[in-house]
Amino acid sequence: MLRFLARRLGAAVVILLVLSFVVFFLQQVSPGDPARAYVGANASTATVDAEREQLGLDDPFFVQYGRFLAGAVTGDLGRSLRTRHAVTDDLQTYLPATAELVLAAFGLALVLAALFALSATRRWPGAAPLRGVLLVLASAPPFLLALVGIIVFFGRLGWLPAGGRGDYVDPGPTGMLVLDTLLHGQTDAFLDAVWHLVLPATVLAIAPAVAIGRIFRASLDGALETDYVRTARSKGLTERRVLAHHVVRNSVGPTLAMAGLQLGFMFAGVVVVEQVFSWPGIGNYLAASIPVADFPAIAGVTLVLGAVYVLTNTLVDLLQAVCDPRVVAE
């Protein structure tokens, strides 16, 4: 198990190093001058040259990359050319809102995936329309689902808000409004935060729910045809006990792998959803940074999202090893 853990962590480190190099290289070959972007378009050539020297942009490529990598390891991602704040401080401001949205959507996706798979495997009466609706919604792009959701549930029915996180100020300490208001016992603020979270989280959860549900259903169907399940049934175990103690556990491995992939994709796809719903997360921060060529901010967000994706899949590998010790021996 320790060797397996070391291999996975070593692979994660290598991937993150490659990601950092690619991000830095793309930043170097991208059009635009970071020094001029920092001092302003009307600055003199002498001012731009002085700023470029101060930022170390005249140093050799690998010297700049080494400085960039050392800063990333220590949490120094540079200073945003747009906000004039440290990128790390900006991420601390915007990342909790994104994490709250993605985690809520991921939890909802797991629930919908379980309903999708179990209803098909157990042939629950009346569940076919639910699966059909999920399949249709999953085929639509998230921005279209978001716009339709706003039109129907805000414009027509008036049931849900159109965007934002709510009218209450986050009391801290996590930056996740739902969790913080719950910890402080602010019932009205908690309900308001949940109410604002429902529509964007649902839009973000639909496609991952179907992807995870399909894998889970296929795994369940395969496990139900195995010899050990037939043996368990022949011993007189109820169908519920067979499903809970024999089928589900042996179906979790592939489902965990797909869930890890989908969680990473959700962090990437949240950019569009945040823009549509005016959600103050790193998606909006990134969208505002791209038009002005704010390279430090773009690189910082890319590295954070990449790290989340890699670490999530490393954690999934470890969970798979716990659920199925045969994975360690491979």
From TrEMBL:
Annotated signal sequence range: none
Superkingdom as given in the UniProt entry: Bacteria
GO aspect biological process, one term: transmembrane transport
GO CC list: plasma membrane
Principal location class: membrane
Family under the similarity heading: Belongs to the binding-protein-dependent transport system permease family.
Protein name per its UniProtKB record: Peptide/nickel transport system permease protein
Organism listed in the record: Luteimicrobium subarcticum
